[in-house]
Write a structure and sequence with these properties.
Strand content: 5-15%
Shape: globular
CATH topology of the largest domain: 2-enoyl-CoA Hydratase, Chain A, domain 1
CATH architecture of the largest domain: Alpha-Beta Complex
Number of domains: 3
Bound molecules: (2S,3S)-3-hydroxy-2-methylbutanoyl-COA
Helix content: 40-55%
Largest sheet: 8 strands, mixed
């Protein structure tokens, strides 16, 4: 392997280049290379100043995350940064692209920092369940002050080069693409001025401010529910106000090491890697996607308008077809409203919003308008006959090679494909509502879908800034199928004596963004009711029907949209208070079913809910609906409010121990062997002493 760190001299300037693609991560070889380069710089009498640059598209993306969990190998990054800072001759960091985590810490070890326009700087360690471990929590506050450090480090956010200049995180911003040239030019100026070495660590401690620390802790306790790293980052920053540099660095290192051992760190690192692996599918490896220059959408309801908005926000022209002029007008209004909301959130400026509406959006009433679209997404009423009619029309007008996608959330896409003359061009694109906000996209690959159609769907997701997960055809695909099983488990507990509010609280305490019944209120009780109607034919007498939910539906209590469901919502509020009337309906259901209620502990609720989730997920994998456990983890993280710091349900199961999860399933099966049949895959993994992650390889 070639040396990942090069030392060259340009007159009196030593240029130290890190080249360790794709992100110049600070692996052991890079740390050793940097250490050696600065030893050489110290001894090189002809070199009067050094410039550190990154080769490729960015400066340094941070520590090598794949080394986490293995014993750290010398030289350690804090020591390398310490050596750079201790240089008697000045050192410049020339940043382009990104300086993240350990990358920014290396730059903080330098005495002068220059960033190219467009560079992002930040300490995102808390997003991986740790804190900066090479001086970031001690040097950054010395440079930018306590308040700015408290705003930046515990949130793990990044700042642009311009903002970094304002907060004095960097000394200079330069235009252009060439960090090396900009760094050398800056170094020349510094030499001419006779600028000295200027260690950040020698700056005075940031001024203590108890109120700012309290405020940060209170804010994070609310926002980072259950997460340990953000609060630990505040502790480390506080240490910088009390301790001298050496002691502060030791304190930072102690906290860093403790966090490295936590399950949260393991969960968050898992999430980081699977989000990148999820799009790597053998079936599309090396397959070129088709062109995507014009999008068609059929149906301008909330979903269709949301999908159109998502495409427009990313610069794709959209033609939306509705039944009649009034409906088309209404759809255009919904899209305009979505864009206005994006302007309010600062995602878009007014002139661009106006230009998008004037130039990129066409609404029409005839299918012919879609004849030039590269990909057409149908988002009409969930009814097989209606969908088939739409697909027949698309089959007539779409150009050869156009992709015909359905946004159905449960219908049989194989049957839809079979109804057209080009089944290999048909695919499911299951967006989540609101489609222009939610990150997840289930790409549902039907029996006959051509690989390049799948590849194009993944390319579309990238273009839309979404995370795509491959799913197979079944009722509910990956996410809704698992959710519906979890809900059935929850309904069983409620029938036996738990209250829906206790279930919600228990699952929120586990880390879910919302409890399952609050989610029902959000989606609307009509959705659940209609689903039960639809499935009534296949119902087994042993299935539990939540008759109390049917009663709520008949009373017009449809959840948030009517101000009342399981919870009561005061006008305009999205957070409800429990409706005591619901308990009465449930009591009636128990009496009718002849159930005498018993108490559940929160722990029992959590274990049952998670056992049901993992058991059904194992079936989803075994049936090939999800190809890998990581596909389920990504789906639940991005579409279902699963706590990211647990890594996803399959990672949670691995960390809990599959034997223990299976034991829970079996214990429940002892009282109800219909609902709680252990999934064969779960049994097999336990028997073979393997975990879900072993199925993620390759
Ligand atoms: N370590 C190892 N691999 C990494 C990596 C890293 N830091 N960053 C990216 N990769 C891999 C990634 O898995 C993918 O691999 C490929 O590089 C391209 O990444 C001591 C403790 C830099 C903004 O948290 O945010 O420093 O899939 O697709 O969209 O305090 O990567 O190709 O096999 O994401 O151009 C702190 C994490 C570490 C930054 C580039 N740093 N990375 O985005 O490419 S902790 C981070 C990113 C730390 C010190 C500590 C992004 C990026 P593959 P990509 P991208």
């Amino acid at each position: 392997m070639t040396d990942p760190v090069r030392y060259e001299r340009d007159g009196g300037i030593a240029v130290v280049t890190i080249e360790n693609g794709p992100v110049n991560a600070l692996s052991q070889a890079v740390r050793a290379g940097l250490d050696a380069a600065f030893e050489r710089f110290a001894a090189d009498d002809a070199a009067r100043i050094a410039v550190i640059v990154g080769a490729g598209r960015l400066f340094i993306g941070g520590a090598d995350i794949s080394e986490f969990g293995t014993p750290p190998a010398a030289p350690l990054l804090p020591d390398v940064v310490g050596r750079i800072e201790a240089s008697e001759k000045p050192v410049v960091a020339a940043i382009h692209g990104a300086a993240l985590g350990g990358g920014l810490e290396v730059a903080l070890g330098a005495h002068y920092r220059l960033a190219l326009d467009g560079a992002q700087l930040g300490l995102p360690e808390v997003k991986l369940g740790i804190i900066p471990g090479a001086g970031g929590t001690q040097r950054a506050p010395r440079l930018i002050g306590l308040k700015a450090a408290l705003a930046m480090i515990p949130a793990g956010g990044t700042v642009t080069a311009g903002a970094a200049l304002e907060m004095r995180l960097v000394d200079r911003v330069a235009a252009g693409e060439d960090a090396r040239a900009a760094g050398i030019a800056y170094a020349r100026e510094l030499l001419e001025q006779g600028a000295p070495a200027r260690p950040v660590g020698a700056l005075p401690r940031p001024v203590a401010d108890a109120a700012a620390l309290d405020e940060a802790r209170a804010r994070l306790a609310r926002k980072a529910r259950g997460e340990v790293a953000p609060l630990a980052a505040v502790d480390a920053i506080e240490a910088a106000t009390r301790l001298d540099l050496a002691e502060g660095l030791a304190e930072e290192r102690r906290i860093f090491r403790d966090l490295m051992e936590t399950p949260q760190r393991a969960g968050l690192v898992h999430a980081f890697f699977i989000e990148r692996k999820v799009a790597k599918l053998p079936e599309i490896d090396g397959i070129a996607p088709r062109g995507l220059d014009a999008i068609g959408v059929v149906g301008g309801g909330l979903m269709g308008a949301g999908i159109a908005t998502a495409a427009l926000l990313r610069g794709l022209p959209v033609t939306l077809v509705e039944r009649d002029a009034a409906a088309a007008e209404k759809a255009a209004g919904t899209i305009a409203g979505n864009l206005d909301a994006a302007v309010k959130r600062g995602k878009l400026d007014q002139p661009r919003r106006d230009a998008i509406l004037a130039e990129k959006l066409t609404v029409a009433t005839g299918y012919e308008a879609l004849s030039r679209a590269d990909l057409i997404i149908e988002a009409v009423f969930e009814d097989m006959e209606v969908k088939k009619q739409v697909f027949a029309a698309l089959d007539r007008v779409a150009r050869p090679g156009a992709i015909l996608a359905t946004n159905t959330s449960y219908l049989d896409i194989d049957a839809i494909a079979a109804s057209v003359s080009r089944p290999s061009d048909v695919i499911g694109l299951h967006f989540f509502s609101p489609a222009h906000v939610m990150k997840l996209l289930e790409v549902v690959v039907a029996d006959k879908t051509a690989p390049e159609v799948t590849a194009t769907a993944f390319a579309l997701a990238r273009r839309l800034g979404k995370i795509a997960v491959r799913a197979g055809v079944c009722d509910g695909f990956i996410g809704n199928r698992i959710l519906s099983h979890c809900r059935a488990a929850a309904d069983r507990m409620v029938l036996q004596g738990a209250s829906p509010f206790q279930v919600d609280q228990a699952m929120r305490d586990f880390g879910f963004a919302m409890g399952p019944y609050a989610v029902v209120d959000l989606a609307g009780l009509d959705i659940g009711f209609l689903t039960r109607q639809r499935k009534a034919r296949d119902r087994d007498p042993r299935d539990v029907v939540p008759t109390w939910a049917d009663a709520l539906y008949h009373m017009g209590r449809l959840g948030q949209k009517t101000g009342r469901g399981y919870y009561i919502y005061e006008a305009g509020s999205r957070v409800g208070r429990p409706d005591p009337g619901v308990e009465e309906l449930i009591a009636k259901a128990r009496a009718e079913a002849g159930v005498s209620p018993r108490d559940f502990t929160d722990e029992e609720i959590r274990r049952r809910y998670m056992a049901a989730l993992v058991n059904e997920a194992a079936r989803v994998i075994e049936e090939g609906i999800a190809q890998r456990p990581l596909d389920i983890d990504v789906t639940l993280l991005h579409g279902y409010g699963f706590p990211r710091w647990r890594g996803g349900p399959m990672k949670w199961a691995d960390m809990t121990g599959l034997g223990s999860v299976l034991a829970d399933v079996r214990r429940c099966a002892a009282e109800d062997d219909y609902f709680w049949r252990p999934a064969p895959l779960l049994e097999r993994l336990v028997a073979e002493n393997r975990n879900f992650d072993s199925l993620n390889a390759g």
